[in-house]
């Protein structure tokens, strides 16, 4: 698959949610080549551990978050 820098991405060229991640490799020309990567394995969510951590950290987390403007709650660069 080749993507031109000056060409708009058509709906057919857009990856679907089921597509594996793609690595873009820069070349000396005005195009990019892509190589598919297998999806990374994901750990199952341990709901009971999460519940315990929320109970332990919940109040201090709420106090810490109270110092942050709500518009930045989902902005990781604000925390970094």
Entry summary:
The chain is of the alpha+beta class and 80 residues long. It has two domains: 2-36, no CATH class; 47-79, no CATH class.
- Rounded to an integer in angstroms, the radius of gyration calculated over CA atoms is 21 Å
Give the biggest beta sheet: 3 strands, antiparallel
Counting helices, strands and paired strands, the structural category is alpha+beta
As laid out across the biggest beta sheet, the strand order is 1-3-2
Helicity range = 25-40%
The beta-strand count equals: 3
Q: Report the end-to-end length measured between terminal Cα atoms.
A: 35 Å
Strand content: 15-25%
Shape: flat
Task: Sum up the structure in keywords.
80 residues, alpha+beta, 2 domains, three-stranded antiparallel sheet, 3 strands, 18% strand, Receptor activity-modifying protein 3-like protein, receptor
What does this entry look like structurally?
This is Receptor activity-modifying protein 3-like protein. The chain has 80 residues and is of the alpha+beta class. It folds into two domains: 2-36, no CATH class; 47-79, no CATH class. 30% of the residues lie in helices and 18% in strands. The protein has helices at residues 47-66, 76-79; strands at 2-4, 22-26, 31-36. It has a three-stranded antiparallel sheet with strand order 1-3-2, with no helix packed on it. The model has no long low-confidence stretch (mean pLDDT 65).
């Amino acid at each position: 698959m080749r993507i031109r820098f000056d060409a708009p991405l058509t709906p057919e060229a857009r990856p679907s949610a089921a597509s594996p991640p793609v690595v873009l490799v820069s070349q000396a020309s005005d195009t990019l080549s892509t190589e598919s990567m297998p999806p990374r394995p994901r750990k199952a969510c341990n709901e009971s551990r999460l519940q315990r951590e929320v109970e332990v950290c919940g109040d201090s987390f709420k106090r810490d978050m109270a110092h942050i403007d709500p518009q930045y709650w989902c902005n990781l660069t604000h925390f970094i």
